[in-house]
């Protein structure tokens, strides 16, 4: 085989990528020291793990940090069919030649981007293992298919997210993997901040934002009583958007906030009661 | 002696507290849809969400018959005689009447009505005003309650804008029911005027001379001042204030409950060290006069309440309503539980002497009579010793608990068939839920051999070969049933506490058995190895485990008969049982191992294994299981499961059943959630 046939293909349709930060900062309202901690980690080449329930702003935070640190951001949503090749890359045949195409992780390593692996537990174990050498002092990515050993460009940083709530028998992050990360704990913001976020993101009125957050706080209290999923900030934002677009508040809550959460008749009825008691139409 | 009304209220409260099954016992109402029971669960959820912790909702007991009242306190004016149960709270529990009057539902649907009453009482309960309630005069007390109620409504209208309309409607209905002014003396008229003023006003403003009370203290100040003003204004010192007719809006303020809410871990533990299921019951009762009243369910064969007549020369324990308790039915029923509930009585010695109640032995030391129950086959089996964790010294006691495997009894063959015949829908539901878990047929890619060519693999291999890599031989795909490496152990608590009643005719154990049978039937279809063990026992030397089904066993009839034979036994030394089951699971070598504990959750035994000791050992046993890659999960039937469960099993590793009847389905759901890959 002629060596010349192997060349690097330009990144194409491999995954969703946000090449370079936009001019305007993605809106993110911090709840603590996460911005400075993340900045420090970035400087010290430490990988970061974001722990927290879905829809509490983890993705938004990474987008915001990428903008702040002026790094490109590559986001990979992990699923249970995601293999190592999907992250690292594979050979393709094109024009009668074999072309190596970098996967998103490899691209991030080469270009010094922030690589965000969302819901990393979902990925297959072999996919998770390829990140190990990137997370210790070596900061290298070996590609056995091509025999390459890529040293990470200084700006490269690995970020993973993980929802401890979804405890699953067959899916958990191995201790050996966890140990490689600095963990930032995320949770739903305190009411004042959550209201601010909802209002900013949806354009809903001030009072409505506060009412929705109060409502969500009460519904979250039902978590111990059989409600498997509690309303996230994301859910509140989408409800508020419906309302801001003219849907009646109670109806918007019923369809966007209550129904998605449960099928249990008594729980749904109680949540509807809460909606009716909290909001005026 | 405390104030008469206080006594009556208290007695009523005690009565309601124990006749919890009044819920379903509502024979004289033909249409069930507008009673409290129809929306109870919904309201409980709502209250939990609003208060931020579990709130229990109970039926307010009807007031005692007027004859009893007048006998106690002399003549009472007709308009002040209570004719119906009123909404109330004791700072923790909320009581609502079972029914509304027909006229009351014209303005508000019954559900809206109950919802509002519940939220009102919750709002008042949150202010915990009872601790401040003035005890000097009835006038001050009523004014205090009025001011508190108005303040609670104000807060309600403020936080729940959606309720304003309902609040207004409620006030209108109440206003239409006020007594004729002619019946009232001048002092009473003054109070009536204040009350009607509140009812006429909007809930979000407080009509003068009332003022918004931010704290109960403000209400108290206002009430004292106002009662003085009223006495001066009416001028007639001799006129006695007899009270104000109370209605659904006014409700009742019950004496503060001793249980502090929310229950914290330490408190939950302290509760558990009290052997009684309801620590309040006996301590309070001993100070109450007996108000025995005829209730529609008097003849039911159900558990009633217990009262102790302290003034009686001969002390005895009596069930005041003459109701039967479960122990009456069965000589072998767990007398330990019964003793538990009575052992807290202040009297050191109680002698049973009632004709309607079977004899009870209550000694200073409850251990003595607990040992009268003999475990069948005790000592027959060779024991297996397990360590026990002692949190006080943070180390294990070696060989502290001996697990003995007992030969399971065999029950009636017909039992299983009758359950299946009685609950076909439930069985189908359980089967449906587990159906999806059958090992699916999965396409395996990149196999060295198989029925089909794997195009992707071929293209890859081709490309790699062109690029100079060694050739690949994994070019096929095949479809096979997925091999799942799972083993499940079901561990069932059959301790004496499972003798508790969850409905008219079912005890916890009955519900457990039915659930077990249905899930067993559904699980056999999956083909994954599983075992079922029941456990109970007494003392560290005798932790009994009954193997109902080994991993290997497949004899359906045999297993069904064993399940059918389960009966409540003695205590719950959960730690040892969990450790033994953990060992069984580890021995299977399966990759994913589930240990599902079905219990009322409270570890206890005759010795130190109670309270914190028991919980900490159980926690340790669960942690050990986890270290061996076992996934423990607990399902408990106790609605008011204390929060220690979260500490023992970890958040999301336990489920509390709202209704015991849902156990089979929940069990199936839990299995599904854990097994699904
Ligand atoms: N702290 C925050 N600042 C700004 N927006 C937030 C914040 N938290 C949540 N949001 C909103 O919630 C939505 C969901 O957040 P996202 O980052 O997608 O959640 P996650 O990645 O944790 O599942 C975002 O689109 C944003 O509108
Ligand atoms: Mg027990």
From TrEMBL, chain A:
<dbReference type="GO" id="GO:0016887">
    <property type="term" value="F:ATP hydrolysis activity"/>
</dbReference>
<feature type="domain" description="CbbQ/NirQ/NorQ C-terminal">
    <location>
        <begin position="194"/>
        <end position="277"/>
    </location>
</feature>
<dbReference type="InterPro" id="IPR011704">
    <property type="entry name" value="ATPase_dyneun-rel_AAA"/>
</dbReference>
<comment type="similarity">
    <text>Belongs to the CbbQ/NirQ/NorQ/GpvN family.</text>
</comment>
<dbReference type="GO" id="GO:0005524">
    <property type="term" value="F:ATP binding"/>
</dbReference>
<dbReference type="InterPro" id="IPR027417">
    <property type="entry name" value="P-loop_NTPase"/>
</dbReference>
<dbReference type="Pfam" id="PF07728">
    <property type="entry name" value="AAA_5"/>
</dbReference>
<dbReference type="InterPro" id="IPR050764">
    <property type="entry name" value="CbbQ/NirQ/NorQ/GpvN"/>
</dbReference>
<feature type="domain" description="ATPase dynein-related AAA">
    <location>
        <begin position="48"/>
        <end position="181"/>
    </location>
</feature>
<protein>
    <submittedName>
        <fullName>Nitric oxide reductase NorQ protein</fullName>
    </submittedName>
</protein>
<dbReference type="InterPro" id="IPR013615">
    <property type="entry name" value="CbbQ_C"/>
</dbReference>
<keyword id="KW-0547">Nucleotide-binding</keyword>
<keyword id="KW-0067">ATP-binding</keyword>
<dbReference type="Pfam" id="PF08406">
    <property type="entry name" value="CbbQ_C"/>
</dbReference>
TrEMBL record, chain B:
<feature type="compositionally biased region" description="Basic and acidic residues">
    <location>
        <begin position="309"/>
        <end position="319"/>
    </location>
</feature>
<feature type="domain" description="VWFA">
    <location>
        <begin position="487"/>
        <end position="674"/>
    </location>
</feature>
<dbReference type="InterPro" id="IPR036465">
    <property type="entry name" value="vWFA_dom_sf"/>
</dbReference>
<protein>
    <submittedName>
        <fullName>Nitric oxide reductase NorD protein</fullName>
    </submittedName>
</protein>
<feature type="compositionally biased region" description="Polar residues">
    <location>
        <begin position="273"/>
        <end position="287"/>
    </location>
</feature>
<dbReference type="InterPro" id="IPR051928">
    <property type="entry name" value="NorD/CobT"/>
</dbReference>
<dbReference type="Pfam" id="PF00092">
    <property type="entry name" value="VWA"/>
</dbReference>
<dbReference type="InterPro" id="IPR002035">
    <property type="entry name" value="VWF_A"/>
</dbReference>
<feature type="region of interest" description="Disordered">
    <location>
        <begin position="270"/>
        <end position="345"/>
    </location>
</feature>
């Amino acid at each position: 085989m002629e060596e010349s046939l192997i060349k690097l293909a330009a990144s194409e349709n491999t995954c969703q990528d946000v090449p370079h930060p936009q001019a305007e900062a993605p809106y993110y309202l911090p709840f603590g020291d996460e911005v400075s901690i993340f900045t420090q980690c970035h400087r010290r080449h430490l990988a970061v793990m974001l722990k927290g329930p879905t829809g509490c702003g983890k993705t938004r935070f990474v987008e915001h940090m990428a903008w702040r640190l002026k790094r490109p951001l590559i986001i990979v949503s992990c699923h249970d069919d995601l293999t190592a090749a999907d992250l690292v890359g594979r050979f393709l045949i094109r024009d009668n030649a074999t072309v190596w195409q970098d996967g998103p992780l490899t691209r991030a390593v080469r270009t010094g981007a922030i690589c965000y692996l969302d819901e990393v537990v979902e990925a297959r174990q072999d996919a998770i293992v390829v990140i190990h050498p990137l997370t210790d002092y070596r900061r290298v990515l070996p590609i056995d298919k091509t025999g390459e050993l890529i040293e990470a460009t200084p700006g490269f940083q690995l970020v993973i997210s993980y929802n401890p709530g979804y405890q699953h028998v067959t899916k958990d992050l191995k201790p050996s993997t966890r140990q490689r990360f600095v963990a930032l704990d995320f949770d739903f913001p305190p009411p004042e901040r959550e209201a601010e976020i909802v209002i900013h993101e949806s354009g809903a009125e001030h009072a409505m934002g506060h009412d929705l957050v109060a409502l969500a706080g009460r519904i979250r209290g039902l978590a111990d009583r059989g409600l498997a999923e509690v309303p996230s900030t994301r859910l509140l934002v989408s409800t508020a958007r419906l309302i801001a677009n003219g849907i009646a508040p109670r109806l918007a809550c019923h369809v966007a906030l209550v129904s998605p959460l449960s099928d249990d008749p008594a729980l749904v009825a109680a949540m509807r009661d809460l909606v009716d008691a909290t909001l005026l139409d | 002696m405390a104030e008469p009304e206080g006594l009556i209220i208290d007695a009523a409260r005690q009565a309601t507290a124990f006749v919890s099954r009044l819920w379903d016992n509502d024979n004289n109402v033909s249409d069930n849809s507008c009673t409290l029971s129809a929306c109870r669960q919904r309201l409980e959820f709502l209250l939990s969400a609003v208060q931020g912790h579990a709130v229990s909702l109970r039926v307010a007991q009807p007031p005692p018959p007027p004859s009893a009242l007048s006998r106690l306190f002399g003549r009472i004016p007709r308009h002040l005689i209570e004719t119906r149960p009123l909404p109330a709270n004791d700072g923790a529990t909320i009581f609502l009447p079972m029914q509304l009057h027909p006229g009351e539902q014209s303005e508000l649907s019954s559900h809206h009505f109950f919802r509002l009453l519940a939220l009102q009482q919750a709002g008042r309960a949150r202010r915990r005003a009872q601790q401040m309630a003035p005890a000097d005069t009835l006038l001050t007390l009523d004014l205090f309650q009025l001011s508190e109620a108005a303040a609670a409504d104000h807060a309600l209208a403020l936080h729940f804008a959606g309720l304003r309309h309902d609040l207004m409607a409620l006030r209108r209905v109440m206003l239409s029911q006020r007594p004729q002014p002619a019946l009232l003396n001048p002092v009473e008229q003054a109070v009536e005027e204040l009350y009607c003023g509140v009812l006429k006003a909007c809930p979000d403003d407080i009509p003068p001379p009332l003022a918004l009370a931010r704290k109960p203290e403000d209400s108290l100040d206002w009430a004292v001042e106002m009662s003085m003003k009223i006495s001066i204004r009416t001028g007639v010192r001799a006129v006695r204030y007899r009270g104000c007719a109370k209605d659904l809006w006014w409700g009742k303020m019950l004496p503060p409950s001793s249980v502090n809410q929310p229950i914290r871990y330490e408190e939950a533990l302290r509760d558990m060290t009290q052997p009684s299921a309801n620590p309040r019951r006996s301590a309070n009762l001993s100070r109450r006069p007996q108000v025995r009243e005829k209730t529609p369910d008097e003849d039911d064969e159900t558990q009633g309440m217990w009262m102790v007549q302290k003034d009686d020369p001969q002390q005895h324990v009596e069930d005041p309503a003459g109701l039967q308790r479960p122990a009456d039915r069965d000589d072998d029923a767990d007398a330990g539980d019964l003793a538990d509930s009575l052992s807290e009585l202040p009297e050191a010695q109680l002698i049973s002497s009632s004709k309607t109640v079977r004899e009870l032995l209550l000694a200073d030391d409850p251990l003595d009579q607990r040992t009268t129950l003999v475990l069948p086959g005790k000592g027959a089996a060779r024991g297996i010793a397990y360590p026990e964790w002692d949190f006080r010294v943070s180390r294990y006691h070696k060989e502290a608990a001996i697990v003995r495997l007992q030969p399971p009894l065999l029950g009636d063959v017909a039992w299983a068939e009758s359950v299946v015949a009685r609950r076909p829908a439930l069985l189908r539901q359980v089967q449906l839920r587990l159906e999806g878990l059958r090992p699916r047929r999965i396409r395996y890619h990149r196999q060295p051999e198989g029925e089909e060519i794997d195009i992707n693999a071929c293209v890859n291999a081709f490309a790699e070969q062109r690029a100079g890599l060694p050739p690949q031989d994994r070019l096929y795909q095949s479809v096979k049933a997925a091999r799942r490496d799972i083993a499940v152990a079901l561990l069932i608590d059959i301790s004496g506490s499972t003798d508790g009643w969850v409905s008219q005719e079912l005890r916890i154990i009955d519900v457990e058995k039915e659930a077990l049978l249905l899930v067993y039937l559904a699980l056999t279809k999956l083909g994954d190895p599983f075992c079922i063990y029941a456990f109970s026992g007494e003392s560290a030397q005798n932790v009994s485990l009954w193997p109902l089904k080994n991993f290997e066993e497949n004899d359906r009839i045999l297993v069904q008969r064993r399940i059918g034979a389960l009966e409540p036994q003695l205590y719950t030394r959960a730690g040892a049982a969990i450790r033994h089951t953990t060992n069984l699971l580890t021995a299977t070598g399966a990759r994913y191992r589930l240990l599902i504990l079905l219990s009322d959750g409270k570890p206890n035994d005759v010795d130190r294994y109670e309270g914190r000791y028991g919980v900490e050992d159980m926690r340790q046993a669960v942690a050990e299981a986890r270290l061996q890659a076992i996934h423990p999960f607990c399902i408990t039937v106790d609605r008011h499961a204390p929060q220690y469960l979260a500490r023992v099993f970890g958040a999301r590793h336990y489920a509390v059943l709202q209704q015991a009847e849902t156990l089979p389905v929940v069990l199936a759901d839990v299995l599904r959630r854990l097994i699904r890959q």
